[in-house]
Structures are given as structure tokens and as C-alpha cells.
Please model this.
Amino acid sequence: MERRTTTPRPGWQQTVEEQGLVYPLTRHPDGSLRPYWDESAYYVFTLDEIEALEEAVEELHRMCLAAAGHIVAEGRLADLGITDPRVAEAVTEAWRRRAELPSVYGRFDLRYDGTGPAKLLEYNADTPTSLVEAASPQWFWMEERFPGADQWNSLHDRLVDAWRRQAALLPPGSPLHFAHSSADELGEDLMTVAYLKETAEQAGLATEWISMEEIGWDTLSGRFVDNGLRFIRSVFKLYPWEWLTTDAFAGHVLDTLDNGGGTGSTLWIEPAWKMLLSNKALLAILWELYPGHPSLLPAYLDGPRELAGSTGYVAKPLLGREGAGVTVHEPGAPAAVRDEPCCYQQLAPLPSFDGNHLVLGAWVVRDEPAGLGLRESSGLITDEYARFLPHVIL
Model:
């Protein structure tokens, strides 16, 4: 594993925009625009390293599903902050019917420096982004800059196949709606949903576009409707379940939830059982079930325990995106239990390559490892100012 510098292609910004990456630049707090897609450097992996990562991701995903089953079987949804009985019932029923409600995709964030086992930092299982850049622009970059090289990247073909297999489980005679929140000012969610919609269309599905804010409620029929007042029977949403089950329409969502049994009116993708995996409490439950596993970091829900005095720890809110609310506590710092529910995970500083802190985003599609995306940050927390770098296998 190695970081190498290179000269960006002439006109790279227009090139990646044409390939679907609508925000190749990021505006920083000082007002400056800096590359988000950063091809001034790239990472090189050996085939052995990629195969080891793929095996680790496959095993981590199996363990996460086993942990989800444990949470349901042992009635531990409250550990995840799921205390509303109706929400807990919906999640539990969705899990029991998961064969009829398969997952489309998810992203593991891993610490890896090429010298040891990859370590799980978190699992973005419900609304993961950075998909477009991993699937499309970095593949075309490799073909242009390194013809004959390879890349861990079967994302596009696997997504098309996932939608093709999903087709038989969708309500017949109506399109699959694709929804994002119009409050997304950056365009990342819009871009991600647009790409997933495209892969569904390539799989032969009829699709429609809608924003979450445009979804209406028909009081006469008791169903969700789109702009044309047509019933929304199925919808992919890049909108977290914890929002969907707490906002103004939460009661209607639960009243009309199609959990695979055909009794409701709206089938939501990703399914409700993804709430079991998109919660940072999963990290502590994994450590409880698989203590000492080489791809896990010690993690607890009741406080940092021994981590405060030895390795240091990271406090992570159970729900959140882009590093929001995450705090880093160095070794020897006094233990501090936060007021909000958190997961306290052993501090494993991201490896530094030329002063850049790297996190690996390993993708799964339909429960199978599917590709890799790399993000660099200036600090230990990968936030909204991180940069995406391509990779090759040489």
C-alpha cells in the first residue's frame, strides 16, 4: 500500500462532472474552494492486500447481520435508543421478513495502513454517500491513466444486478420512486440518488423522481402520494430512518409500512431493519459478541472504561453523519461520560500518508463486497472537508 503523487489531468473538473460528480470542489470555512475529487495523488494496493480487505469486509458483514439477529432475539433495541414500541415493532417485523426486504448497499469505514488487519470504525448501512465517485469517476480515471491496471470496483454492475433481483419483490404495476431531501444544499444526496435511479433503470425498472418534501399524504385513501396524486407503493429514500420515524409524517409511515407481507401500502428502501446496523451501538454489541476479533476495536455503551487510561477513545453519538458530534480523547485524559447516548470506541488514529489521514470506505452490495473508496482528511476525524482519492491495484 503506497500513496503516490501525480499531475491531475487537464480539464479534470469538467471530466468528473460529466461522469456524475456534481461537486468536485468543496468550499472551506475561509471561503476558498478546494478539490474534493483529488487526483493529485492516488493509492496503490497489491492484489494480496485487496483480497485480504475483501475477506475482512465479507466477515464483518456476516458478523453485523448476526449482531442484528442478537439484538432482535434478546430484545435489546433500547440499547440503540429505539424505545418507541411502534418503531421497535416495525424494525423487528422487518428483520423477520428480511428475505423479502433485502438490503441494496452499505459502506464500512475502515482503518487500514497495509501492515495489519483492517479495523472497523463504523458501518454506514442506511444512507451512505460517496458512492458515485467510488463507482464511476475513479474507474474512468484508472482506464485513462493506468490502462491495463485493475481496481477493487464492481459497484456499477453489482448495483444493476441488485435492482434486477429486487424487481420481483417490488409492488407490481407502479414505479419505484427515488427520493432525497431538498434541504441538501451541497448536492451530494441528489447526486447519489440520481445515480442509484440510473442503475435501477438499467436493470429495467420503471422509476420516478421526487423529493422527500414533495411526498404528500392523501387523507381520503390514507396513502402517500406523489406530485401527480399517484399512490407511492415503493420508494428508495436517502433519508435516515431515525428522521422518517420521528418527523411529522412518522405515524403515517408506520401505519402504512409494507414490511414484506403485502399488508401495507408503501415499501421503503432501505428497509426498516437497517436501523439495527446504522447505529453506532452496533460497534459495542459486536465487541461484546466477538471480543478480541482482529477487525474490531473495543467499544462500550456505558462509558470508556479502561480505554481512558490506556489507549484513549473516541466518543460517537449513536446516530450522525460526517463525523458530527464525534470527540477524540487522548490516552490518559480523564474519562468523561457524555449526556447523550454514545458509543465509546478505542482510539485508533487514522494512518498518516504524507500528513494526510486516510480512511477506507469498503462497499457491500446485496451482502457482497463490491468496491473501495478512499477519503483523506487533515485531522483525525473524517468530516465534510475530506477529499476523495482514486486507487489502483498494480
Observations:
- The mean pLDDT is 93.
